[in-house]
Design a protein that fits this description.
Number of strands: 8
Number of domains: 1
Helix content: 25-40%
Oligomer: single chain
Distance between the termini: 23 Å
Order of helices and strands: EEEHEHEHEHHEHEH
Number of helices: 7
Radius of gyration: 15 Å
Strand content: 15-25%
């Protein structure tokens, strides 16, 4: 694993994992934590460890967050800058919770992104989690920051969500997939929020399958 800075701020860096031999695709891992400074890219390391063994180049990225010079549009700009910072070819974005928001948002705005997997993603700022979304951006910015306001995304999107999610209601993914043409919804029965990023769970395996399908189709 190699740590690479993509800017001068302490939060503008990522960790690049390269497989033995030729990569079979590339994945950008974007961690969650409701965009707050207290959560970092360590949340993505277990996922990167699995995916690099699957033969992918994996870029686990950090970004400026609320409480650490982040907020909108800086947070989104950092994710786009990180995606452009390393040349690993076309990428699939994989993001959990707030990272799911950023993964789908980046798919809309980056030509390098060919598809997105949202793990319990925050996809509609006007529903369910508005108070937390307002910590990231103002209500006037919802139209430019909320993926549900940006449809069509124009890339394949797979939303994986547990029906017992205690932090981000499954309706976030259900509602997004209802308005995004071609989006695929995978609901995991009995699964909670953190199951999505816990290797060994059914939720993680469904996310992993989605990544493999999109990344190897690049």
């Amino acid at each position: 694993m190699q740590r690479i800075a993509y800017g001068e701020h302490p939060s503008q860096f990522g960790e690049l994992y390269l497989p033995d031999g030729v990569a079979e695709g590339a994945v950008v891992v974007i961690h969650g934590g409701f965009w707050h400074q207290r959560y970092g890219l360590e949340l993505g390391r277990p996922l990167a460890d699995v995916l690099v063994k699957d033969g992918f180049a994996v870029w686990n990225v950090e970004y400026r967050r609320v409480g650490g010079d982040g907020g909108w549009p800086v947070t989104g700009q950092d994710v786009l800058a990180a995606i452009e910072a390393v040349d690993i070819g076309p990428v699939v974005t994989l993001g959990h919770s707030a990272g799911g928001h950023l993964a789908v948002w980046a798919a809309k705005h980056s030509a390098r992104v060919v598809g997105a997997v949202a793990q319990a993603g925050v996809l509609d700022f006007t529903q369910h989690i508005t108070a937390r979304a307002l910590e990231l951006c103002s209500e006037e910015q919802f139209a430019e920051a909320s993926p549900a306001a940006l449809v069509p995304i124009g890339k394949p999107v797979i939303c994986v969500h547990g029906d017992l999610d205690e932090d981000v209601p499954v309706e976030q993914s259900v509602g997004f997939c209802a308005v995004e043409p071609g989006a695929e919804l995978v609901v995991v029965e009995g699964a909670g929020h953190m199951d999505m990023i816990t290797p060994g769970t059914e939720s993680w395996e469904r996310c992993r399958e989605a990544v493999v399908r999109l990344a190897r189709g690049c």
